[in-house]
Amino acid sequence: MDDEAPVIYGLEFQARCLTAQAAETEHIRFLVGTQSLRAENQVHHIDFDDENNLINKNIYLHREGEIWHMSASTFDKSLVATCYNKTSDSKSEICGAIWKLPDDFDNVSSDDQSTSHQPLELLCHLDREDCGDLKSVLWHPIGESENIVALTDSHIIQYSIDTASSTAKMLNATPLIAGKSQPKLTCGRWNPHHNCAQIATANDTYIRGWDLRSMEQTYTIENAHGQLVRDIDFNPNKQYYLVSCGDDCRVRFWDTRNVGEPLKTLSEHSHWVWSVRYNHFHDQLVLTSSSDSRVILNNISSLSSEPFGDLAEKDDEDDDDSVHDDESLPEKSREPQTDGVIATYEEHEDSVYAVDWSTADPWVFASLSYDGRLVVNRVPRAEKYKILL
Amino acid sequence: MYYGVEGENPGASTVDPCDINGAHFKPDIYLNKLIREKPLTELMDKENEMVRQIKALDSDMQTLVYENYNKFISATDTIRKMKNDFKKMEDEMDHLATNMSAITEFSGNISSTLQDRRQQITKLAGVHSLLKKLQFLFELPARLKKCLDMKAYSQAVRYYTKAKRVLHQYQHMPSFQGINSDCNIIIEQLSQQLRQQFKDKESSPKQLAECVDLLLQLNEPPESLCDEFLSHARQKIDEDLNVLDHQIKLQAGEITATDLERPSQAYLNTPMDILEFVDNGCNGYLSNICLVIASYKDMFLNRYQDDENLDTIALRKLFIFVTDLMEQYFNYVQRRVQLEKETGDNAILVRALDRFHRRLQAMNKLLPDTDFSRAGLEIVSKAARDRVEHYLLALKQHFTDCMTDIRQKLAAPRPAGKHDGAANLAELLTNMQSSVMDQIRSVLNNLQAFTAPDITFAMKPYFRGPFCSQDVREGLIVSFIKHICTTCNDFCECVGEKGSIPPSLLLILAKYSSDLETTSISYLVSLTEEQFLVVDKSNTTLVSEMLLWAKETAQKLLNHYVRVQGLTISQMLRKSVETRDWLNTIEPRNVRAVMKRVVEDITYIDVQVGQLYEEGVRKERSSDSSRRTHTYSQSQQQRKPPWSYSPSVDNSLISNIQKLFSEKIEIFSSVESSKVSVLTGIIKISLKTFLECVRLRTFGRYGLQQIQVDTHYLQLYLWRFVCDENLVQVLLDEIVCSTMHRCLDPIMMEQSVIDLICERG
């Protein structure tokens, strides 16, 4: 039996932001935000039914404007932050807000085929004074505190939000670097290690680490990529490892303690790499997406927390899988896993700007291309068993 | 006529009975024949003739008979006379016999009377010689002394050896004892003096040999003499070696030539070249050691055939001595040869090595059981290898120099106008090619000195095989090609440092590598194999492997070039999109300067690439004259559909369908080595960047229109560079589409206005 076919879901509008519903750990849920300047924008709440290979959706209206970035709360699954483009005739600025999803799949009857969609409930706007366009909103990675970090073109802003009173208080705003001509920030990630006290940002070819308590720079990777750095992600298990991708078509792995040389460089993509994500459960699985309209799943065992080339204890997670598939189970002597591409997914026809792993199922991921095509894929079975067994 | 007729003509006579002179003449047949055949007159004539002949024959016979009669008479007289003479002679003989017997009798008498005297005389003569010998013995000490004073050592030794036995025999007699002791004292002195001379540094080898010879005759122990001789010889040879050492130090610069001690040694203090050095070594050291070996053999080895033991000891001593010294010598030569690295002249080095090798071979003959020529050959091949390495370094350096040269020329301000600067790209390439090739050729020529037929070591398979295949082919040619490839590959690796390598250099190198692949490598390898007669091809790198390296390198460089150029243009486009406020622009009146710049740059690149690469194939090429208008109308038709629908309808479906039919475009893909392919690669990268940048912005109405104008302008000028103009079309359409999506107020500009603006721009 082949690997399950990918499930494709089409949006009416162009879209570039996709996020897993981070606080949801039971169901495979994703959120997609659309980009349309002239029509009403939407947030699609996607539920993937793994067993039936079906997609259910809830569509909410996002009336404020086209969505450029979206991130789901890590502590309350109904909360989502968006960065949206507020346009007038002569002005366009990117603002941020935190929204509450009006309802969930669990308590809604299946009559959502009605023509009008519910709008998102506004929790609070993120006031950014004059710090420039908002780039992204980062939630606390473990969901312990209700602090969030927002990145603008040139500033890092910390907020404290209070869900009860629906307010977001700006704690501080730190300019990136004094000086006008500094290239704008492109992205940022909150480091889940070190008590969640660090974030990393990227601007131009630099990657910088920040300590949130003092807002001091902790490290700088100069010339991380030949051109713009597009995305970064932290290894969920190894505290000093991060991965970055950029316009030079490369994906690079770094040890933040030794920033002179990358640990490893992948160059499988043939155009800019827009997004890179570690699997939260098995950090040897790394997803990348690129404007060559491909998604590539890599296996980087050599830099993962998995015992490399060693015997791993048998996981007891496999009892439900073994029902499907007995023939691929012969106890192979475990050969050390080699780094390399596991699979290349070519379901997209336009640039793939976003890709994310499900937070509920370690083997499911979604990718979104500009033309509004969302594809839900699974890690190939063979690879899955190789990791599990 | 009377005899011997048969013998004279046996064949004819038997046959013809009518031959009147023949043996088988039958008168009847003849007569019958005549009568029958001849007329009467003729018969009459014949008869007359015959009568005449018979008469003549008769008279002849008569004369003969008379003559013989006379001779017979005289013979009878002679015999009678002889009889008388013999009778007289018999009497005289009898007389002689009686006289002889009388003489015998007398002589017997005389000898018996002289018998006694003779014995006495013999005895007296014996006494005389004895006395003479005794006198010699008595005079011996004085003689020896005199000889000693005159330094006629050999004569003294000869005297002594003559007398020694006698003296030894009559030792018990007091008088002889005195003489003996005197002699011994003198001989002691003599040997003392001889040893003195032996140890004396100034004495010549010939003198030495004489000394040893004499000392041996005086029964000195040969072993210690061997040692002494060798140690003495060693001192002399050490001097030679010191000269060599001094030279090496001079050459190495450890000693400066200025600190002269004696003017006479001035020549020692000027550094010699390698040939002089080897000559010096050969003439000084080697000939001395040969002399030593020869004289040693004369003195010690061939003398005691009876004493095998001594012979082997002496031989071993010599062997150790020689090996030790040769080792030192080899050491010096090797050091000196290594010093030769810096200088360039091969001919002298090879001649020097050849001389060295020859001399060693000569030495081999002198001393069997040793193989110095092998060790010498080792030095020679080491030197050859060093040379090869040196040349490899020089070649690498040359290659680097070539590239620096090109860099400088590229960096030099272009004289007037851009295209003048571009014009010399091909020239630079050919310059580099020919200069590298010349360099290699000259290196090979230089190295050929090592295999010249008049060089002895070149003929040894032990040297020749490894030198040709391993050193020259692998060590030089293959390594150099490898070096070029790795250097070029390194250029492709350093993406980070922008501008460190001028793209034109990349282009030149790419072309250079591909030329290497197509022609140069095979040429070089076959040239090498031809010049050096490489036979043994095991352990050598295959030509095909090298071709593959070069091919990969060329492809990599070309891809890298496309990437670098694409990125520079991308950078321009990106900056132009990112820095502009597209919402608040004025209505477009002009094509933006950036686009002109892009077209200009691409044209410049086109010129550059065109110098080095073939045009390449385009798709669906039509005649150039009608090209522009044709494309234009075609593009209009193609553009119509995406632009015609109303902006309110979401067009993702339509664009998706459109994409289904167009092929997927690989942006940073590998390019072919043709101008069109290279340019297509660059343009693809640039336009894709343009697209991605547009998607990140929000546009006002005039922003959209500006993009329309810009893309149309690009369309007008870029089609001619690419292999498939549809590709440019698709990418540009996509840009416009995306812009429309990103536009708040998507109102398109009239096509005619766009045309107008573009025409004007």
Features:
heterodimer, A: 389 residues, mainly beta, Methylamine Dehydrogenase, Chain H, five-stranded mixed sheet, four-stranded antiparallel sheet, 1 helix, 29 strands, 2% helix, globular, B: 761 residues, mainly alpha, Glutathione S-transferase Yfyf (Class Pi), Chain A, domain 2, 4 domains, 0% strand, disordered N terminus, WD repeat (chain A), repeat (chain A), WD40/YVTN_repeat-like_dom_sf (chain A)
User: Tell me, what's the shape of chain B?
Assistant: flat
Total strands of chain B: 0
Secondary-structure element order of chain A, N to C: EEEEEEEEEEEEEEEEEEEEEEEEEEEEEH
How far the N terminus sits from the C terminus of chain A, by CA atoms, comes to 19 Å
Query: pLDDT under 50 segments of chain A (min length 5)?
Result: 108-112, 310-334
Gyration radius of chain A, in Å: 21 Å
Q: State the end-to-end distance of chain B.
A: 143 Å
Query: Secondary-structure element sequence of chain B?
Result: HHHHHHHHHHHHHHHHHHHHHHHHH
Structural class of chain A: mainly beta
Organism (chain A): Lottia gigantea
InterPro entries (chain A): Beta-prop_EIPR1-like (IPR059104), EIPR1 (IPR040323), WD40/YVTN_repeat-like_dom_sf (IPR015943), WD40_repeat_CS (IPR019775), WD40_repeat_dom_sf (IPR036322), WD40_rpt (IPR001680)
Protein name (chain A): EIPR1-like beta-propeller domain-containing protein
WD repeats (chain A): 222-258
Mind explaining what this structure looks like?
The complex is a heterodimer of chains A (389) and B (761). By secondary structure, chain A is mainly beta. Chain A has a single domain (7-173, 221-388), classed as 7 Propeller (Methylamine Dehydrogenase, Chain H), CATH 2.130.10. Chain A is built from 1 helix and 29 strands. Chain A has a 5-stranded mixed sheet, with no helix packed on it. In chain A, a hairpin with a 2-residue loop joins strand 16 and strand 17 (206-211). Chain A is globular and about 50 Å long. By secondary structure, chain B is mainly alpha-helical. Chain B folds into 4 domains: 5-37, no CATH class; 221-370, Glutathione S-transferase Yfyf (Class Pi), Chain A, domain 2; 387-562, no CATH class; 580-760, no CATH class. In chain B, helix 5 (153-169) packs antiparallel against helix 6 and helix 13 runs antiparallel to helix 15. Chain B is flat. The termini of chain B are far apart. Residues 1-13, 258-264, 416-422 and 621-652 of chain B have low confidence and may be disordered. Chain A binds chain B through residues 12-14, 36-39, 85, 87, 89-92, 223, 226-227, 248-249, 270-272, 291-293, 349-351, 370-372, and chain B through 495-496, 498, 567, 583-584, 647-648, 650, 652, 655-656, 659-660, 664, 666-669, 688, 692, 695, 698, 700, 741-746. Chain A: Residues 6-297 form the EIPR1-like beta-propeller domain. Chain A: This is EIPR1-like beta-propeller domain-containing protein. Chain A: Residues 325-337 have a biased composition (Basic and acidic residues). Chain A: Residues 307-340 are annotated as: Disordered. Chain A: Keywords: Repeat, WD repeat.
